[in-house]
Every structure is written in structure tokens, then in C-alpha cells.
Amino acid sequence: MNDSFDQLLNGTDLTAQDNGTTLKRLRRATDEEALRTRVGPMFYQWIESLKSDPWGLEFDDEQLKKLVEGTVKFMETRGLSLLSRKAYDAARRHFSRVGLLPEGLWTEDELLAERIEQSDTTSFAVRQEFVRESRRIREGQ
User: Which of 27, 66, 105, 109 counts the most CB atoms within 10 A of its CB?
Assistant: First the structure.
């Protein structure tokens, strides 16, 4: 049975004992409602952002299906929210790294942050170089 959230909530006596079946159905209906009303539009915005500048990507149905499945799996395994823009940025970088999306889908800020994370920042000269690079990026925007 796949009732809507409203149908379940309006027709349920939450005080009755039913071995958790009603609560499970309510939880599933709530999840489906969230997917339909909030996650779907957020995911659609992310796909549209990948299609526009600066990325300019196009997706066929098969690629889109893989992207949907990969995104859900990526978010679930990392405990990320499907309603967080930052999580979609992380997914874009990850998918670019592993080949689900084309290489190079990183902003200059993201590339700099990645270099900083992988560098020995105990050196003053290295930190100064990163500061100069960060200023160059900010001034170029």
C-alpha cells in the first residue's frame, strides 16, 4: 500500500497499537513527500547548473539515471543531506574525480583548497604562495 502522507496522517489513530506498521508507512510517505517536494527540485537545480555556464554539460537519459543513482549513493554513504547545496558541490567534485562527470569540474577556489589540503603548510613560503593565489582568484572574480 502506497498512501500519500496526508491520507495516512488523516486516517490514522496514532494511539492504536499496530506493531509499528503505521509508523513505518508514515515514515515512508514522509520520505516520499520530501523527495517529491524538496529533493526533486534541488536535484533539478543542480542538474541545470551543470548544464549552464561554466560547465555546459548535456546528459542523455542513461547518464542522468546514473547520476541520480550515484548522487543518492554518494550522499547516503557520506551522511550528506540531499537538501544541501554544499553536498551537491562535493558530489560534483567526486564524480569529476571518478569519471561519472567529465574531468575539470572544479572551481579555482576548490582547486586551491584541494592543493592546500594536500600540502605541507608548515612552511611560511608555501602559506604565502597560497595567500597570493587566493588573492589572485578573488581579484579575478
Answer: 105
